[in-house]
Amino acid sequence: MNKSLMNRNNFAKSAAILLLASAGMGAFFNAHAENTNRASAEPACQGDAVLFCENWEDGDWNGWRDVAEHPDRGGFTCATGDCLLPYPGYNNSRAVAIRLKKDAADGIFPRAPFNKSVGPNDTVYVRWRAYWSPGFHFNYQNTKHFYLLTNAADGYQGGNYRVGFFVQPPEWGGDPTVGVPYIHLYKRDIDTAPGSWQDKEYGEIRYRPNQPGTENFRITGGKWYEIEMRITPNPQGQSTGGRVQFWIDGKLMADHSDNVSVRKANEKDVFDGVWLSSYFGGGGQTNHPDQYVIYDDIIASKQRIGAASSAPAKPSSPTQLRADG
Ligand SMILES: [Ca+2]
Ligand SMILES: [Ca+2]
User: pLDDT higher for 128 or 58?
Assistant: First the structure.
């Protein structure tokens, strides 16, 4: 046997062993793509209805990928400071902070698929904790924050369809440090019932707070929020018939079921992942300070997750973050 053939054989053998090893390890480690230890995670991460649980305590990006995949940013190495992991999260645990450098439109856009498959008409609840940096500027047009999206495991980077949780100052040109939360959809992605209010909107559909006592609610930087969003898609084959809701710190803020569509009637894609999108752009103002958003404790489930089951009395604020350029 000549040397190069022997090397090839050895290489083939090593490759086979590696493949076997990684297949075996995969079966063990990929039980949960986001790599979270369910035993030590909050109780809401347990149960058959749970689709996803990321509390960042493992300190890795397992299962995640950067939608933008900026080659110049080194993926998730965070070497540029666009993302900071692990970072003081909820109750000083680990978390990811996505940084928007002064006046920059974006940082990174991590997305992750759920661990379990979702049925075409399944209702999905997703709950997360968020902390906008003190004095955070929201965008007058919209400040993207969080998405439920389709095709999270493969396909188009940002999903074919997505339902967003956005925050926007109540007045164009007003105080940018206060924001109204709402569920956002692009009109081009959905069906609208003729004559409905959605049908009369240009471009964007915004499901704002509509529950008693929520008119003056504002999100501001410098404190933690516990946000839960519920999406019941319009059944496949139907243009409308969906329902969207969100809660903040356990309080129901919005509940909409009037001609709600979150995808086209003939669309086969299912909502199967989450996307952390802190994009500050697409209109509105172009200036903002060096700022960041911390994401922690992301849970997706087919059942209501609810207010924290093990909430500490007073989560401490992250004080170690350095946002100087
Ligand atoms: Ca992880
Ligand atoms: Ca955490």
Answer: 128
d(CA 181, CA 128): 14
Q: Which residues surround ligand 1, an ion (CB under 5 A)?
A: 34-35, 58, 60, 62
- The rounded Å distance from CA 148 to ligand 1 centre is 18
Q: In the predicted model, is pLDDT for residue 75 greater than 50?
A: no
pLDDT higher at 126 or 97: 126
Nearest ligand atom owner, CA of 33:
1
Q: And the tokens for 58? A: 């493992």
Centre of ligand 2 to C-alpha 21, Å, is 30
In angstroms, what is the span from residue 55 Cα to ligand 1's centroid?
Answer: 7
Looking at the predicted structure, is the pLDDT value of residue 7 above 70? no
CA–centroid distance, 139 to ligand 1, in Å, is 29
User: Is pLDDT at 3 greater than 50 in this prediction?
Assistant: no
φ, ψ for residue 148 (rounded to 5)? Answer: -95, 130
Query: Do 166 and 229 meet the contact criterion of CB atoms below 8 Å apart?
Result: no
Q: What pLDDT digit, counting tens, does each position of 118-159 carry?
A: 999 999 999 999 999 999 999 999 999 999 999 888 755 677
145 Cα to the center of ligand 1, angstroms: 19
Give me ligand 2 centre to Cα 146, in Å: 17
CB count in 10 Å sphere of residue 218: 14
Cα end-to-end span (Å), the chain = 60
Over 80: is that where the pLDDT of 9 sits? Answer: no
- Provide the strand spans (E) within the chain: 50-54, 65-66, 83-84, 96-100, 110-113, 124-132, 143-150, 162-168, 178-186, 204-207, 219-220, 224-232, 242-248, 251-260, 271-276, 291-301
The sign of the torsion formed by the CA atoms of 170, 171, 172, 175 equals negative
